[in-house]
């Protein structure tokens, strides 16, 4: 897929966020979404990353650091065949990373079709 401008990517990202399954973000608390060009280690296959403490592993103090979800713009664009596929992959990636917030591992995500 051709290179997209930042504005075009943002438009597709906004459309993808609007297409997230109902309820998937309802219980998110203290989670930020960031878009970076690529992972720090240069990985060209990683589309997204959850960085935080899953809900089931949190202490009772409520003093957890904010959780972060990263989307890797360049990797998503390289992976996608066209704009519709990019939008779909962004939805899948966000849902996948939110699932990690809820403590669902990669194996289970693949079993239920969000891997």
Automatic annotation (TrEMBL):
Pfam families: Zincin_1 (PF06262). InterPro entries: Zincin_1 (IPR010428), Zincin_1_sf (IPR038555). GO terms for molecular function: metallopeptidase activity. It comes from Brevibacterium aurantiacum. The keyword NADP does not apply. GO terms for biological process: proteolysis. This is Predicted Zn-dependent protease, minimal metalloprotease (MMP)-like domain. The keyword Disulfide bond does not apply. Keywords: Hydrolase, Metalloprotease, Protease. CDD domains: MMP_ACEL2062.
């Amino acid at each position: 897929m051709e290179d997209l401008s930042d504005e075009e990517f943002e438009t597709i990202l906004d459309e993808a966020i609007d297409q997230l399954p109902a309820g998937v973000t309802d219980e998110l608390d203290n989670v930020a979404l960031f878009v970076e060009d690529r992972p720090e280690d240069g990985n060209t296959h990683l589309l997204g990353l959850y960085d935080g403490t899953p809900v089931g592993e949190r202490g009772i103090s409520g003093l957890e650091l904010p959780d972060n979800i990263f989307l890797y713009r360049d990797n998503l664009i390289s992976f996608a065949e066209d704009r519709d596929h990019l939008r779909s992959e962004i939805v899948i990636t966000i849902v996948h990373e939110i699932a990690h917030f809820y403590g669902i591992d990669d194996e289970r995500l693949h079993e239920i079709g969000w891997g």
